[in-house]
Specification:
This protein has six helices and six strands, in the order H-H-E-H-H-E-E-H-E-H-E-E. It has 213 residues and is α+β, with helices and mostly antiparallel strands. The N and C termini lie far apart (62 Å).
Length: 213
């Protein structure tokens, strides 16, 4: 009987380990795209019931190819881990969903902020990147471009729609190469939605990097 119970326990632990591995990014320990999508869609449904607004942040690590080319892929991996750490521990709260969405892209769903804090999120990212770049003996500077989209439960939209909007603001920020604290305003079929964009850090642009269409 004890052997059977131990085998059942070990099997359950293995299933849980596999489940966690399928939802997390192996390099950074953050949620992966699948994990983020699963939990974020659940959070959006909860937001509609509780009438709480949410902010979705989409961010891109600038110059990752340049870091890889100059210093090697190990340095590039370290840059991704550094960004993951500053987003997870230095920028957002424990209840927020933080993910490496793929490649050099990160997604965050902020769940414990007021509806007026879009620009505050941008400032948090700016401050965290600045602190990281002040660390002595860094081989490279970190630079992030970020876009923000508001989820309003009175005018609900899908997660894909929020990501597309935040992604658009992020690329506007990347290509204007500046930080702004004034939200842009988008008008769509769901009504008025706020979007904020920012560029953080001081690493150079990668020459020849083409904008996303």
């Amino acid at each position: 009987m004890l052997v059977v119970l131990r085998e059942v326990t070990e099997r359950r632990q293995m299933v849980e380990t596999i489940r966690v591995m399928s939802l997390t990014d192996g390099l950074t320990g953050l949620l992966n795209r699948r994990g983020f999508t699963t939990l974020a869609e659940q959070q959006l449904r909860t937001s509609i019931r509780t009438r709480n607004r949410l902010w979705l942040v989409f961010a891109d690590l600038d110059g990752l190819k340049d870091i890889n080319d100059r210093l090697g892929h190990e340095a590039g991996d370290q840059a991704l881990r550094d960004v993951s750490e500053l987003l997870r521990t230095g920028t957002f709260r424990e209840a927020d969903l933080v993910a490496r969405f793929g490649g050099d892209e990160f997604a965050i769903l902020a769940t414990e902020i007021s509806p007026t804090e879009g620009t505050t999120l941008v400032q948090r990212i700016d401050d965290a990147v600045r602190r990281a770049n002040e660390t002595a003996d860094r081989a490279f500077a970190l630079s992030l471009s970020a876009g923000v989209a508001l989820f309003d439960p009175d005018r609900p939209r899908t997660l894909d729609e929020l990501i597309r909007e935040a992604d658009r603001h992020m690329y506007q920020a990347k290509h204007t190469q500046r930080t702004t604290d004034r939200p842009g305003v988008d008008q769509d079929a769901a009504g008025v939605d706020l979007g904020t964009m920012a560029r953080s850090g001081n690493a150079p642009e990668v020459p020849g990097q083409a904008p996303r269409s």
